[in-house]
Design brief:
Layout (H helix, E strand, L loop, with lengths): L4 E6 L10 H15 L3 E7 L6 H4 L2 E2 L7 E4 L2 E4 L1 E7 L4 E7 L1 H4 L16 H19 L5 E5 L6 H6 L12 E6 L12 H6 L16 H10 L3 E4 L6 H8 L5 E2 L7 H12 L1
């Protein structure tokens, strides 16, 4: 993977958040490609429970300052950056005081999902693409991890479809069993339609639960990786019948070779 450019967009990444299936793979896979001489960037939200001082986050003024429109409201975009110690891997953080200031990731202290998680996902997707455009960094592959990143393929295939920068970029989505209970805001679909994305493209979001978010992400991806051994039968069946190239689950000791081979096929 020498000199190939891969953009990793994830809901969660260690060491900035606790270890789980998504956050660990969102570190292990980029590290593996970095070790092979690939060029990588990682993007994640800057949740309020990330310790900025400990992890030495700092704002990148030249990338911050633009406003993103979410459901007809201007929301300021703040970009922060940090380096994973010893790995020489840069991580970019998408931030906004309204969406990411609170001291938790997806739900409050009672476990109730934040009511604006749908808007946070839209803002995150747009923020990533706008920042990559400003960096003028052309990824060969964009690899998506976790449901908070699930709107990125949708926006890439519709809202940003005419961006020449991404004309050759392939999108891969990793699908995990790690989900959430209930649904996001029922108005999510209308908020996405506000950006000129057709009803047909997001019909599964009539009920914006975990499975339907992931299905929508799969539909708009060029390839899929099954990243959990215990993925739900319904999602497994959906992937197998999607006619997308897909990689079956590979255990920790075998994922490096499997992922590298899969990437090379994509390219």
């Amino acid at each position: 993977m020498e000199d190939k450019r891969i953009l990793y967009v994830s809901s969660e990444v260690v060491p900035y958040l606790a270890e789980n299936e998504v956050s660990l793979m969102s570190y292990d896979v980029p590290k593996m490609i970095n070790d092979q001489g690939g060029q990588i960037r990682i993007f994640m939200p800057r949740y309020g429970n990330i310790n900025e001082r400990r992890h030495q986050l700092h704002e990148v003024i030249r990338l911050s300052g633009m406003n993103l429109v979410v459901n007809d409201v201007d929301m300021p975009l703040i970009i922060k950056v940090a380096s994973i110690p010893k790995e020489r891997i840069q991580v970019y953080f998408i931030d906004n005081d309204e969406y990411f200031k609170r001291k938790a990731t997806f739900s409050d202290e009672d476990g109730v999902l934040y009511s604006d998680n749908d808007e946070r996902a839209i803002f995150f997707a747009k923020g990533v693409v706008e920042t990559v455009k400003k960096l003028n960094w052309v990824p060969d592959i964009i690899h998506v991890h976790g449901w908070m990143a699930s709107m990125l393929p949708v926006y890439m295939k519709h809202f940003y479809k005419d961006e020449a920068l991404f004309s050759q970029t392939k999108i891969v989505t990793s699908v995990y069993g790690q989900s959430f209970e209930g649904s996001l805001d029922v108005e999510m679909k209308n908020k996405i339609k506000f950006d000129g994305i057709s009803e047909d493209a997001i019909s599964d979001l009539d009920v914006p639960n975990y499975e339907n978010l992931i299905k929508t992400s799969i539909i708009h991806s060029d390839a899929v990786i099954i990243a959990s051994e215990n993925l739900s039968p319904s999602l497994t069946k959906f992937i197998e019948s999607s006619e997308k190239p897909f990689l079956p689950f590979a255990p920790k000791d075998a994922f490096a070779e499997a992922y590298t081979t899969f990437y090379k096929k994509m390219l």
